[in-house]
Amino acid sequence: MGQCVFTNGCFDVLHRGHVAYLQEAKSLGESLIIGLNSDASIKRLKGKTRPIVGFEDRAFVLAGLRCVDMVIGFEQDTPAELIKSLLPDVLVKGGDWAPEQIVGADFVLANGGTVRSLPFHAGRSSSGIIETILERARLT
Fold first, then answer.
1. Residue 95 region, left (φ>0) first, then alpha (ψ -120 to 50), else beta?
2. Are 43 and 51 within 8 A, CB to CB?
3. Which residues does 17 contact at the CB level (< 8 Å), separation at least 6?
4. C-beta separation of 29 from 90 below 8 A
5. What percent of the chain has pLDDT above 90?
6. Which domain holds residue 90?
């Protein structure tokens, strides 16, 4: 059986940076599982105006990507419990996180897995897209 890769996030306004990141994550193993923050979880983490796109729609779009094998929602602010229950072979997160700072890294490493931090794709973010929409709305 091939290696299971796990990542998590809000994936609120899906964009090219997300897809490139998920494709790279998938290349690290045979299957890619995404832990998807619930709407309530995103509200707690990002504020009352988020998410823009509801859970069902975010999950549907992610599940439709060729590189994604499974999407599992979680209500907590972190995916720690989900990671412990899935015990992935590879734990991946994007951005400036050092592998040892990634939630669940200690658990995955202690169980023989690996942890990777993949680079962000500059200029591509949900927040940037939302800002562009708001700016253009102000110009009309």
1. left
2. yes
3. 120, 121, 124, 125
4. yes
5. 74
6. 4-139
3-state secondary structure of 86: helix
Q: pLDDT by residue (tens digit) across 83-129?
A: 999 999 999 998 777 887 899 999 999 999 999 999 876 666 667 77
- Nearest CA-CA partner of 103 in 29, 39, 10, 7: 7
**CATH code where residue 110 lies:** 3.40.50.620
How many structural domains comprise the chain?
A: 1
Q: Note whether 7 and 36 are within 8 A (CB).
A: no
**DSSP symbols for 4-53:** EEEEEE---S--HHHHHHHHHHHTTSSEEEEEEE-HHHHHHHH-TT--SS
Decide: helix, strand or coil at residue 124. coil
Residue 66's contacts (CB-CB under 8 Å, 6 or more residues apart) are: none
Cα–Cα nearest to 126, from 11, 25, 8: 11
How far the first Cα of the chain sits from its last, in Å, is: 55
Tell me the average pLDDT of the chain: 91
